[in-house]
Amino acid sequence: MTYSIPNDDDSNTRPLIIPSASARRAKRDPQSTSVPKLTLGSLGKSSAKFASTVKGASRTILEPIDGGDTATEIESNDESNFADDDSSVYSYNIDAPGSFINYGSIPSLPPPPVSTLGLPDNTQLEYESKKSKKRSKKDRSGRKSLFVKRDRDSTTSQKELKVLGKYSTPLVVTFLLQQSLTTASVFSVGHLGKTELAAVSLATMTANITGYAIIQGVATCLDTLCPQAYGRGDHKAVGLNFLRCTILLMCIYAFISLFWINSQMILDFLIPGEPELNRLAATYLRVLILGTPGYCIFENLKHFLQAQGIFQASTYVLIICAPLNILLNYLLVWNSTVGIGYLGAPTAVVCTDWLMAIMLGLYAAFINGYQCWCGFDRTIFQNWGRMIELSIPGVIMIEAEWLAFEILTLAAAKFGTTSLATQSVVTTICSLTYQIPFAVSIAASTRVASYIGSNKPKSAIITSAVSLKISLFSGLLIASILYLSRNFIGAIFSNDKEVIEYVAEILPYGALYQINDFLGCVSGGILRGQGRQSIGGWLNIFFYYVVALPFAILFGFKFGWGLAGLWIALVGALFFVSTLQTYFVIKSDWDTIIDKAREDGKREAELSQSHQP
Predict the structure, then answer these.
(1) CB 3.0-4.6 Å disulfide test: which of 297, 303, 564, 590 passes with 457?
(2) Where is this region: Disordered (predicted)?
């Protein structure tokens, strides 16, 4: 609504108009018996100063009071009105109730008609004296002073650095422990025989590409939807998006299961002449089907809690479950009483997946995170468009990188055993170090999305800048460590002198890869927080499959550069991905991004209201 204020040069004070909490309640419920009040504070300023100050500055951002509604943007409808004469009219557009409105040095006015403010006719007006400006931030009643004016984007680089470090540290531990679940299976089965070891490796690779990458990619939609909803205070929408994504993953799980059930036929086609290897790998996948729903629930619960700033819960769960997984592998694979040999490894994974889901669910239900639980209703099955729109590029981003690595590993096998062993060592190192930027990217996406949801673009920009600086610094640090330790780090993984020397030759390319991987991962996380996953998705597809793979074949086989040629192509492609993603982050139109998030919030609110009894 628009409230026009006539100029009156007979006085030199201005009003500060603050709809109180009771006024906001009265607007929602005009039949309320309580009498709402509208506070007007009188602060002495000259009207001439108002004209010179406001002219040319048409927007003011103010912080809400009482921890209530989102801060309002107050815009002048016509800058030409800002003249210091008796006929001037100052017009402002009030977007929402519940925010205090600073009209600048406007002369004192008679009480405005309450109808012009959209409040009930029985609204009373109160006046605060000049002294109120000197109150502390807490008045005698313990609430915020009405006259405390701040920029609503009050975060700092130092604060964001601390918060991102606090959030990402437990995530690094979480991801490393989660990765150990697969490693435990490889170690436990590796002593049964080389065929069994090869089968577990093949099954794990197949499960990652055709199952886990898809699940993780779909779950990344919650990095956008849940923190934005939480930032705008819509806790119900956080729970709704969690349930919607869980149902979506259960539908996708059905198709994954069909593929894994028929995986032996597919593997026989892709790897002819290895019937026993393919049979064992397919058997492993069929057992994993039983635990995949637990994995889906666990992944979604992680994002659900992270949106609320609860990052340590999954770490607590994995600190318990990772050692239990090792124990289960020993009991089910090697124990003479309860052991079942090869099948014990996937059975241990199934038990661990469900145990993680149950424990994290109990944490959310009884310790922290239950605040955003919304229950079940019909709205769960509506408004899926935005979720699917975000899920598809999320899958593409993860799938493109994982699949490209597997293809390059298969290509490395063409160069001989030493090259394949070297590729395995360098890939393992990169996989371990990747957990650092991945954790930072999750923390960054959560913070950025939350600030977008709460309409704080400056804070989102600060968080983005700090996150990118962290990625560059940590990437350079890890790259330096790998480069300086290249001559002896291979000995940790192999006793073969030839492999150790070849690792020292290839690892410098792996060090360069770290810089781009750190920057690309974190910039991709910021894009997820903005809801612009599609940018990263298409960049990954183009540069991995149109650039990296063709040039890898050209450099590696045509030019005879071997394994080094594969890594040069990979590093070059990732350089363009990380650089362009960072460019899109820096050039972000934050107003458009926030408007899009606001539209999503309005749509969700309208849907919820339409189903209220």
Answers:
(1) 590
(2) 1-40, 126-153
